[in-house]
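Input record (one chain):
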Amino acid sequence: MTDLPPDLPRLRTLETWLAYTLDEVRAAIRHAEQREAERQRGIQHRPRPPDWLLETGLNRNSPPVQVHQGDCWNRGKRTRGISLDEARRAITEGVRPCNVCRPDSALGFLDS
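The corresponding structure, as predicted from the sequence alone:
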């Protein structure tokens, strides 16, 4: 069997400690369930990524660097979402299309 103490005072102490520990475990479970529920809500309510991205230069005065499709893995860190018309306009104004995701082909421009 188990190695429980034979006397009542130590058994009561053990009972109190187990009850306290069980309360702590249950509280930890509630917190973990709450974190998981919040994570799931965040996933469900995450905004949709933009369809097109404009990669900007190193400072605010430098011209844009590239146009990307929204899911391009090769996009830089300095990107912002743009509309379809803005993506077309940027490419026609000379902003280089990304050579990985090929937004120029997706936008209907002829390959050069």
